Amino acid sequence: MTAMKSKPLLHLVLGVFLRGCVVVVLVAVARRAGLFGPKRSRTWKERCLSDVLAPVYMQLDRTKRAYLRYKESHTYMEAKVIRDGNLAIRDTLLANAHLIPPALFDDAAKLIEHYDRWYEEFERLRLAEKPELESRFVFLGPQGLRFPSDAEARFQEAFRQYSSELYPAAT
């Protein structure tokens, strides 16, 4: 009877030991990849800045300017600039998720969700109206899902922070 009781205990101890070993190996691999801790190197930050933060920052500025022009003209051309910028931001975030700082994961998800819904509505209206570039095009965006300006602000702040940290003389 004691031999039977010791087998489950042995399996439990071995299972805990092996899971611990797997965790140690995964943490070591993650550290070497620069995913957290002190190994989040300058190189990773430079890639984050050049591949994610800077393109997102520029596209956010571009779409904001296009939106201001759109409010004046309501032309399809300006709506199309906004569409192209929104898709560029969404695609940048999706293609470079491994370079998004962890503090911005939720913000990235909010932006992606907004842009997905925005694009669905935009395409629905565009296909129904088939506008020319100079045509009047009144588009209100996805109803019930406002633009996450708090996420926009945090991405812009991260861009400024990484820029000044990596290139202090340039700022």
Task: Give the SSE layout.
Blueprint: H1 2-32, H2 42-73, H3 76-95, H4 105-129, H5 149-166
Descriptive tags:
single chain, 171 residues, mainly alpha, 0% strand
Low-confidence stretches: none
Secondary structure: number of strands: 0
Number of helices: 5
H/E element string? HHHHH
What is the percentage of strand-forming residues? Answer: under 5%
Integer-rounded radius of gyration: 24 Å
Main sheet summary: none
The proportion of residues forming helix, as a percent range, comes to over 70%
Give the overall form.
flat
Give the N-terminus to C-terminus distance in angstroms.
Answer: 74 Å
**Mean pLDDT reading:** 83
Classify the secondary structure makeup into a structural class. Answer: mainly alpha
What would you say this structure looks like, in words?
Helix 2 runs antiparallel to helix 3 and helix 4 (105-129) packs across helix 5 (149-166). The chain has 5 helices and no strands. It is 74% helix and 0% strand.
TL;DR?
The protein is mostly helical and 171 residues long.
